[in-house]
Specification:
The structure holds two protein chains of two kinds.
Chain A (H helix, E strand, L loop, with lengths): L16 H32 L1
Chain B lengths: L2 H31 L7 H34 L10 H17 L13 H37 L6 H5 L5 H23 L5 H4 L3 H31 L6 H27 L17 H31 L24 H26 L6
Helix pairs in contact in B: 1-2, 1-3, 2-3, 2-4, 2-6, 2-8, 3-4, 4-6, 4-11, 6-8, 6-9, 6-11, 8-9, 8-10, 9-10
Classes of the chains: A mainly alpha, B mainly alpha.
Chain lengths: 49, 370
C-alpha cells in the first residue's frame, strides 16, 4: 500500500503525508511542463521558422 | 467559514476581477469610439482576454464547489469526514492566484507581445494553474475512495466497483471529474507556446472547452439541481430513473462529441471558419460525423433534464421523504484509505504528461518550411 491508512478522527488534523506528497507531485508536474516550454523554444524555433 | 462557502467566495472574487477587466475593456473601446483616446491594440487584447479568460474560471471554481457539495450531501455527510479542509482551501487559494496570472494563453500567437511575456503568462502560469485542479481532483476522488473503503474492504482499485454508479449525484460528480481531466489533458498542448502552433484555432480547442464547460460544469450543476430543486419546492424528483438515464446519456454524448472534435482538430480542421467542401480534407467528415452524433445524444440528455425539472415542478408529488431513494448510506466500519485514488490519479497524470511530450514530438516531426 502507498501509505499506512489513518483512522477517521485523524484525517482533519493538518495535511497528511499523502496530501503533502500529492502537492509536491502536482507542483513537479506543473514545473516540468513549464521548464520544457522555456528550454525547448530555441530548438523548436529553429525547426519552424 | 465552511469550505463550500470559501470556494464560492473564491468564485465570487474571480467574478469581480472578470467584471473589472470587462469594465476596463469596454470603457477603453467606448473612449476610443468617441474619439477621446488613441487605440492601443495590445492593451485592448490583454484586457479583453482578462475578461474572457477569467470568466471561464468562475465556472471552474463553482464546479469544484458543486462537486464537493454533491459528494458530501449525497453520502449523508460521510465523505465530509475525509475531506481535509486546510488542503482544499490551499487548492482554492492557488486557483485564484494562478487564474489571475494565466491570461496569456489566449495571446500565444499574437505577434505584438514578446515571446518571454507570452511564455511566462501564457504557458508557465497556465501549467501552474493546472496544479490546484490536480489538488482538488485528489481531494474529491480521495474522499470518495475513503468513504467507500470505510464501508467495504476492497483491493486497491476495488472501491471503483463499489461506487454507487446508479446514484445520480455520485455519477454526476464522477462524470464531471472525468470530463475535467479529459478537457484538462487536451489543454496542455494548447497553452504551450510551441505545440499550440499545431492546435491553434482548430476544433481541438472546441473539444477542450466542451469537455470542461459543457461537460464538467453542466454535469456537476445538473447533479446539484437534482438536489436543489426538490429542496426548494419540497417535492420528490419526478423521476429518479430518468435522472440516471439523463446523466449517462448527456455524458456519453459529450464524450463522443468532444472526441470527434479533438480528432478533427488534431488533423487541422479549423474552428470559427466556413470551410467549402473542396478545401477540406475528406476524412474530416468522419470525425465531424462523430461530433454531430455526440451532439444529438447530448441534446437528448439535455431535453430529458429539462423535462424532469419541469415535471418535478408541475407534478403533484407522492408525499413522503423528499430525498427518498436519492441518498447513499455509508457506514464507517473499516479503516478508510485514499491509496487507490492516489495511484489512479498518478497514472492519469503520467498519461497527461505523455500527451504533452507527444505534442512536442509531433511539432518537431513536422516538415520544415525553409
Amino acid at each position: 500500500m502507498v501509505f499506512k491508512s489513518k483512522k477517521v478522527e485523524e484525517w482533519d488534523k493538518g495535511l497528511t503525508r499523502q496530501e503533502k506528497l500529492w502537492i509536491v507531485i502536482a507542483l513537479v508536474v506543473g514545473l516540468i511542463m513549464s521548464v520544457t516550454t522555456v528550454i525547448a523554444w530555441p530548438s523548436i524555433q529553429a525547426l519552424c521558422l | 467559514m465552511p469550505l463550500i462557502t470559501w470556494g464560492a467566495g473564491i468564485a465570487a472574487i474571480i467574478a469581480l476581477i472578470t467584471v473589472f477587466y470587462g469594465l476596463i475593456t469596454f470603457s477603453f473601446t467606448l473612449a476610443w469610439r468617441i474619439g477621446l483616446i488613441e487605440m492601443n491594440v495590445e492593451a485592448y487584447r490583454w484586457y479583453y482576454w482578462g475578461l474572457g479568460h477569467d470568466a471561464q474560471y468562475i465556472n471552474l471554481a463553482a464546479t469544484i464547489v458543486a462537486l464537493y457539495a454533491l459528494i458530501v450531501l449525497r453520502t449523508g455527510f460521510t465523505a465530509a469526514n475525509f475531506i481535509n479542509d486546510k488542503y482544499a482551501r490551499i487548492a482554492f487559494d492557488l486557483l485564484l492566484i494562478f487564474t489571475i496570472a494565466a491570461i496569456g494563453h489566449h495571446i500565444l500567437v499574437d505577434p505584438g507581445f514578446s515571446t518571454i511575456f507570452k511564455q511566462a503568462s501564457g504557458s508557465v502560469s497556465s501549467h501552474l494553474l493546472s496544479v490546484p485542479t490536480v489538488l482538488h481532483a485528489f481531494a474529491l476522488a480521495g474522499a470518495l475512495s475513503a468513504t467507500v473503503t470505510a464501508s467495504y474492504r476492497t483491493s486497491l482499485f476495488g472501491w471503483i466497483k463499489r461506487i454507487p454508479w446508479g446514484n445520480p449525484a455520485i455519477a454526476a460528480a464522477i462524470f464531471s471529474l472525468i470530463s475535467l481531466a479529459y478537457g484538462g489533458a487536451l489543454a496542455q498542448p494548447l497553452t504551450t507556446l510551441q505545440p499550440n502552433l499545431n492546435y491553434h484555432n482548430t476544433l481541438w480547442v472546441n473539444a477542450h472547452f466542451h469537455l470542461t464547460v459543457v461537460g464538467s460544469t453542466t454535469i456537476a450543476f445538473m447533479g446539484l439541481f437534482y438536489y436543489i430543486l426538490p429542496s426548494l419546492i419540497s417535492k420528490k424528483l419526478y423521476s429518479i430513473k430518468l435522472s440516471k438515464i439523463q446523466l449517462y446519456t448527456f455524458f456519453i454524448g459529450i464524450l463522443i462529441l468532444s472526441t470527434g472534435m479533438a480528432l478533427a482538430g488534431y488533423y487541422g480542421d479549423p474552428r470559427r471558419t466556413f470551410m467549402p467542401s473542396d478545401l477540406g480534407l475528406p476524412f474530416w467528415s468522419s470525425y465531424t460525423f462523430l461530433l454531430a452524433l455526440g451532439g444529438l445524444i447530448a441534446i437528448a440528455g439535455g431535453i430529458m433534464f429539462v423535462f424532469n425539472m419541469i415535471a418535478t415542478i408541475l407534478y403533484k408529488g407522492k408525499g413522503g421523504e423528499v430525498f427518498e431513494g436519492m441518498m447513499v448510506k455509508f457506514e464507517i466500519k473499516n479503516t478508510p484509505t485514499k491509496n487507490g485514488a492516489f495511484v489512479l490519479l498518478f497514472i492519469i497524470l503520467i498519461l497527461i504528461m505523455v500527451l504533452y511530450f507527444f505534442s512536442f514530438y509531433r511539432l518537431g516531426s513536422m516538415p520544415t518550411i525553409y
